[in-house]
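Exercise 3.2. Students should predict the tertiary structure of the chain below and write it as structure tokens, then compare their answer with the key that follows.

Predict this chain's 3D structure.
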Amino acid sequence: MDAQLLKTFITDFLKLLDVEVTALEVKTGHRTLVVVESGDSARLIGPNGEHLRALNMIARRVVEQKHGEEAANFLIDVNAYHETAMEKVRQSARMLAQRARLFKHDVELAPMSAYERLVIHELFAEDPEIKTESAGEGKFRHIVLKYKDAGFIAQK
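Answer key:
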């Protein structure tokens, strides 16, 4: 979906919700991110980000119905809530990866959303010692950080 069209849609969508928006920017690249700044962030984010997840789901469904599935590949982030949460997930994964390296053993992370798993897979995509795999089903799906012996791989 065109960045300007997406910006207009999200602006109108938030007006319908009677939300005050102080700034709205669409960042395109690897992923399309709609960055929203608002004084109504508590209403938009909700407890533990529940409202923000629902807001994203509804907005993507509407865009998907009007413009197709590819156009609905975006994420709304309010007052950097989502990016802050993802940085905490990355930090936790880095710490657990250090544990996997130190003990040369696989480490299982807590269950997480599909988006959080994608972030972790991307984080370790180029790591020579850590391989990521998803395991589990449904709400128990999680990442396993697998230690791979770099010396053994280099000899092959």
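Discussion points: The longest strand covers residues 21-27. Strands lie at 21-27, 32-38, 74-78, 107-108, 130-135, 142-147.
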